[in-house]
Task: structure prediction
Amino acid sequence: MADTAGAYPEDCLVIANPAAGTVTEELVREVADRCARHTRVTVTRTEGPGDAERAAREAVRTRTGEGTRVVVAIGGDGTVLEVVNGLMDGAGPGEYTALLVVPAGTGNSGYRSHWGTRPWQEAVDTGLGALPSALRRLDLARVRELDALVVLGAGAGLTAEVLRSAREVTLRGRARLQAGLEHAASVFTPYPGRVAVDGAVVHKGETVLVNIGGGRHRAWQYLVLPHSVLDDGLLDVCVVGAGTDPVDVPPLLLTGEHVDRTGVVYRTGRSVVVERTDGLPLCFEHDGELVAYEGSRLTVDILPGVLPVLCAPVPGPARPERTR
Result:
């Protein structure tokens, strides 16, 4: 959903996370110089967890002009999540601060959901130089029981277990995530689960994975939710059941072919309940972070059109409803 209010760049705060995978001083300087072609720029560097959230919150609360204050997040998906939490916490009615992501982490799926595979230089020039056409208000979600914002997406089962497996992998970058997924798939046992969308049960039985969101891609290369649209006011939900062997999942996710498998359910809705029906703790993640949670049931609700983002306009694909 485009928004033309305050449609020029008032100023720009660059928040750089030096601990992210590919952040360097040279990159920070290049980003700041690029932004300075379009507006005034301030740069801040984080020193630990929570710093990006605090800086973004302060940027919202100190905004005084009539244009669009932009916060540029240099880092990975974890940095983006912190910045979004700060933007949402600091914003009041009618306040206007937009997010622009520069990819410098491991997965960078948030950037891909906004700009695809375009280089970050093009994203900065388009985002700051082509207002209002690059400005959209994107959906977020919230995990009700945890009171936690979801930016990119959430998952249970195999795609959450991969985060545990990746800890044992010595590779770096996307290769580490791929190896973690393949290892998790080789030892994963489907769990008894139930998924309800807007109050209607769409899946009950052996469950390999549940993904909710959000962005189409996770860990950059995995097309987990191929029909997802960032600003349609709906959550996409994909459930892979017992008809798919877990070891077959990694290659299927690379192409999105998992949605055509027997036992896969693909739905959209505004509220999703994910359960483990044997009462054991549900293995759950959102935005690439494994959640410390001892319960067996979680609820994810849509927050439609709440986050101003500078990103490429993407037409929505057809949405076939699939249950096999």
